[in-house]
Design a protein that fits this description.
By secondary structure, the protein is an all-alpha fold. The chain has a domain of about 140 residues: Orthogonal Bundle (Tetracycline Repressor, domain 2). It contains nine helices and no strands. The chain is elongated.
């Protein structure tokens, strides 16, 4: 990694932390430059526009999500253990040190849902990929005979996604322990319904 790459990575780490509390729109090149102690022109040379900065923040967040959630979960045994690991590690995600304001994708979804552009396109693609990953893990669990043959894997992925996003949102505004307990109870009902009868 070159010095320029190291600087960019460090800057994006600070940008993710800011975006999790202020939103992507709140992270201007000027505000970020002030936060990391760089000149505005120096930072502009790295990103050239606010939209490019937003896309770069999302790219860095996606890379961290893969590293913290997806990659470790994929090392678990195929089937239900892997599907569970994806869910469990996803819960840990919004408690990461570099996300003081919680899940950055929740914040970005609220901001970008009706705002066309490169940042929204990247966010939408990443969330579709994640739902597809969950559905694929469910299909593997069917192959392993952990989940029933007639399971609608896309539906299971959708409901799992909805439970986790509800958790990420509600833990910030109501009791986090109660939110986690109820979210996990909802997930266990999903898994019980998905299981093969002989499992």
């Amino acid at each position: 990694m070159t010095k320029g790459d190291e600087t960019r990575s460090a800057v994006l780490g600070s940008a993710i932390a800011l975006a999790s509390t202020l939103g992507l729109e709140g992270v201007t090149i000027g505000k970020l430059a002030e936060h990391v102690g760089m000149s505005k022109s120096g930072l502009f040379a790295h990103f050239s526009s606010k939209e490019n900065l937003q896309v770069a923040i999302l790219e860095e967040a996606i890379a961290r999500f893969v590293a913290l959630v997806v990659s470790p979960a994929l090392k678990k045994p195929r089937g239900e253990p892997r599907f569970r690991a994806l869910f469990d590690r996803w819960f840990e995600w919004s408690r990461a040190d570099f996300l003081p304001g919680g899940c950055i994708f929740v914040m970005a979804s609220v901001e970008l849902d009706d705002r066309p552009g490169l940042a929204r396109d990247r966010l939408v693609a990443s969330q579709r990929d994640w739902v597809d990953t969950l559905a694929h893990a469910a299909r593997i669990a069917v192959e392993e005979k952990h989940f029933r043959n007639d399971l609608d894997c896309a539906q299971l992925a959708h409901e799992t996604f909805s439970i986790a996003y509800g958790y990420h949102f509600l833990r910030r505004i109501v009791d986090p322990a109660e939110t986690e307990r109820r979210s996990r109870a909802a997930f266990e009902r999903l898994i019980a319904d998905a299981r093969a009868t002989n499992h």
